[in-house]
Amino acid sequence: MNVSKETEKNIAQLQMLEQNAQHLVLQRQQFHMRLLETENALKELNITKEKPFKIIGNLMIAAEKKQLEQELTSKKDMLQLRITNYEKQEEKIKKKINDLQQSIMGSINKKGDTND
Fold this sequence. Notes:
Layout (H helix, E strand, L loop, with lengths): L4 H43 L5 E4 L2 E4 L2 H51 L1
Antiparallel strand pairs: 1-2
Helix pairs in contact: 1-2
């Protein structure tokens, strides 16, 4: 089937957008895993009666519970914000993908109608 140059360009753009969407999903999933780890660390920190430690590089260093709790809470907030940002980007790309798919299908259907 012959398609116009514009349709070919739109198909290439669609493929690029789909790759970008996949990349965003993977990044969001990674941040979500880090968020779960941080939430679990906060839960354990609230349960423990002993002096907590934090890992810096290859070292475990004793830390003040309050300070560690503040750091983890701050990290949790930042991760939630990043996840929300990725979700918004995903929605924008999904909308572009849908619009582009409809445009491509419309072009292909028109082309098919003129060939009949």
